[in-house]
């Protein structure tokens, strides 16, 4: 009997003046050309919230503190591996609102601050689109 592996991916939702930071993934990389939010694999010994804060700093140069969890999506690997992915997103609060974004050039080609409704129709990574939908529906209640 094989044990299914669990892999946690943590993301940070950074808000500034009612808009949210999205990063365009570099072409030629996984999900290249799509717009994502800062995030990555939870490393051994850290919590998903700590990973979201770390990834935000590494990918954007923005220092943040962890806020509440806003989404958690679970999906099986579609590539045939026996892995279940947990994609967890936290609100992140900027330490300094005036700091400029400094992209990790290896991973991202551009960034924008957008509204939850994504008025420009940017091609968002699936979990970002779903998280925005969750947030938009709770704000309309």
UniProtKB/TrEMBL annotation:
Pfam families named among the record's database cross-references: NUDIX (PF00293)
Record-linked CDD domains: NUDIX_Hydrolase
GO molecular function: hydrolase activity
Cofactor(s) it depends on: Mg(2+)
Key words of the record: Hydrolase
InterPro entries: Nudix_hydrolase, NUDIX_hydrolase-like_dom_sf, NUDIX_hydrolase_dom
Superkingdom per UniProt: Bacteria
Domain Nudix hydrolase, chain residue ranges per copy: 5-136
PROSITE patterns: NUDIX (PS51462)
PANTHER family from the UniProt entry: GDP-MANNOSE MANNOSYL HYDROLASE (PTHR43046), MUTT_NUDIX FAMILY PROTEIN (PTHR43046:SF14)
Protein name (Swiss-Prot/TrEMBL): Nudix hydrolase domain-containing protein
